[in-house]
Each structure stands twice: as C-alpha cells, then as structure tokens.
Amino acid sequence: MTPTAAQPTCPLPILRTVEELRAQVAAWRDAGLTVALVPTMGALHEGHLGLVRRARERADRVIATVFVNPTQFAPHEDFDRYPRDEAGDAAKLASAGCHVLYTPGVRTMYPEGFATAISVGGPAEGLCGTFRPQMFGGVALVVTKLFLQALPDVAVFGEKDYQQLMVIRRFTRDLDIPVRVEGLPTVREADGLAMSSRNAYLGTGERARAPELYRALTAAAEALAQGGEADGALTAARSRIAEAGFGTIDYIELRDAETLEPVTRVTRPARLLAAAWMGKARLIDNVPVIPAG
Known about the structure:
This protein is an alpha/beta fold. The chain has ten helices and nine strands. It has two domains: 14-184, 3-Layer(aba) Sandwich (Rossmann fold); 197-289, Pantoate--beta-alanine Ligase, Chain: A,domain 2. A six-stranded parallel beta sheet has the order 1-4-3-2-5-6, with helices on both faces. A three-stranded antiparallel beta sheet has the order 7-8-9, with helices on one face.
C-alpha cells in the first residue's frame, strides 16, 4: 500500500466500456498505485462488501465489477430472474470504500461474432461441475476477460463458492495470468446461513430452515476431523439436511482442500462441500476440515 491511497467519493464512478476501464487503470498506474479487482454478479450483500474491504487492504484502488454472465447459466436456470439493482449496488460499494464500479453490457463482453470458449478440468470436475456443466467454462471465460481488461495486481473472491475459487486459481496459474487470486472466508448471517444473492428466493419458513445446511456440515466436519469415516459422516449430514425440509440434495462430498480430489479420510486439510435445494433456491455451502492434532 502507498500513502497516497485516497478515500473514494460519492457518487461512485460507473464505467461501462473496456476503453473507460483501461483509461482509469492506466491513470492509476501512472500515479504508481496498485489495483485490486472484485468480480461479482451484483445483488450485493455484506459478503460482497467484505471482499471490497479485503481488496482495500491489498491494493490502493479497488474496482468492483457487476455483470450477470450469461455463459455460465443453462437455458433452464435463473439468468432472467437473477436479482439486479445497479443503484443499490453502487451505493453499497461506495460505503465499503470501492473506487470504481465496472458494469459492462452483454455486447461489450460478448460482441457479435464472439466465438471463443475456455475448457477447464481438474477442480472443475464433479460437484457443481456435474450439476451445472456449463458453469465453470463460463466462469473461466468471463473472469479471464475481466482480468485482461483490468490487469489488476490482485483479485478477491469468496470461499462460499469454494469450487469456483479453486477453478479460478487453477486456470490463472495454467494460463500464466499475472494476477494474485485471494479467497475470503464465507460471510454468514447470525444463524450461520451463508450470505448469497439467491437467498432472496427463500420464503419465510424456508429461510428459517436453511441454516440447517451449515449446521449439518459443521457436525460432519467435526466427526471427520476426529478420524471418522467419510461414509458415516456424510450419510448423517444428508439425513439431517433432508429432515430440515430440503428437497433435492445435489451432493455432499469430502474433497482435498487444494486439489478437490475426493478423499475418504482426513489426513490433511480437506473441504466438506454441499449443494441442496430449499424451494426455488439452490443453496451451496462448505466448511474446512482440519485433522485433529
């Protein structure tokens, strides 16, 4: 951090084109300032604002992006109804110390004739990669474009989307993109529910039952950390989630924390990950599992 870093002013500047973004970043670079990027899809909550605050600790200037990326949604998913609130998002970002909001349109990101795709493997395989097979290719494509458009020193993502974070770290290394990718631990409501824009889909009764996902994962993680077998801990967690009123449970799995390869016993840091449906909301969550001793 340099001592010249300044507090942003309101209203928050909003940039909509690559040219505007690059001009702003170039001006900061000319002044010797470092740059952090916080990519989002909007409908911001305290979890996103935590990413901005972490980014301010890591760089002199912070760019937040809001772009609901169509390439990571399947035709039957919630692209059209995904919550959008640009004015509200801008006000929240300004309050958290963001310096610029970059919100490109679909035609800016994917102009007519766009014909490029990115295929990702490794940590993208299984978990959400099975149930949303289009997702991580779309994430890799849009994040790569944002990295190349802004050329930040560091980018900050939330650990709630843990598989996504691991995928981003993998392709950033594989493609030699000179951006340091940092993760921020999941920000939770007081009752433990992971903050998510899709929580807006929960009805009142559903919202009251939704934290049981986190409680079930926490109990299973404690058992696994003490040397318990994965099958028993995962079966107990699945039963607890079902009893709480969740519908389809897409997965509950134990994976290596770095590679995301499946594991059956915790001998090194692991991650317990789950995705389950509560009404119209597909909730994902994960907790670390650290072997005892």
